[in-house]
Amino acid sequence: MNVAHYRALTLNGQGGKPIAVALTPGWEEDALRDLAALTGAPLLACVTDLTGDTARVRYFKGRAEKPDSDSGALAVTAHLARIGAYRGGLRVQSPGGIMRVGGNEHGGLIPQLGAPDDALGHEAPLADEDLHALLSALNLRATDLVGPPAQCGTATKRNAVLPLAGVADVAALQPQPDALAEVQTRAGLSGVIPCTFNAPGRDVDYRFFAPARGLPEDRAGCFTFATLCAYMAHRHYGEGARTLTGTQASGSDAPGGLRAEVYLRDRSFTVATGGAVTPLTSGMNPTHAHEVRA
């Protein structure tokens, strides 16, 4: 059984998220979980069916199933294009829903589609109590902020955006996970995004913390970047179409690189986010054979 290994949302071919992809049509439940446990990858995407432009996929972290994954959907699209199984826009259907991915073997973009009554672009101020607690948990002062903090995302999935002066300020952050988790839970936040819009060669440099969800820090995420794109489109750029770029997990040994196509008109906001997918070849073969009985 060949399992192909990739990194999704890479920056200059490095960093990003390790993803393994396997074609597993007709496999039984236990076999899928056994394979996931053997790969050693943080996430395995099992393509259980490919019919027309729809790939049915299940994601596993070890033996535990994950309902969906934007980076996994990008890796699946890149893998199917790379082996010649499918090229062009793909519908990646998993237990968590459907993602429409436009891309090829080098990466792609995913439109960030919310429900009609829960569209991306929702913004609200942070309560003073929550803002002070967030700053304290990040070992920051109010004077460290260089722009208005806000809750951005959808009405039901909101991130706190905290603009700082420069890349070094973002990279140097050492949050207190327990304190951050407490305010994240109390304020109903999906996560916290300290960022800077003074990043050489890109539009934003940022980090994402969500300890209350079991994510002390995430290296790359399409929805996280979409949140920032909404903030930038409304506050920095105004109406029109543009391409935005960002670096996530600033200062880490494996930062992620993301790209977005953004359109804002009459307060209507649309965005597709994604990035590059790189075959993993450094120190090992792109594919590894595992003996697993289907």
UniProtKB/TrEMBL annotation:
Gene Ontology MF terms: catalytic activity
Q: Name the domain of life.
A: Bacteria
Which SUPFAM superfamilies does the record associate with it?
A: Diaminopimelate epimerase-like (SSF54506)
InterPro entries given in the database record: Phenazine_PhzF-like
Q: Which Gene3D superfamilies match?
A: Diaminopimelate Epimerase, Chain A, domain 1
State the protein's name: Phenazine biosynthesis PhzC/PhzF protein
- Which organism's genome codes for this protein? Deinococcus maricopensis (strain DSM 21211 / LMG 22137 / NRRL B-23946 / LB-34)
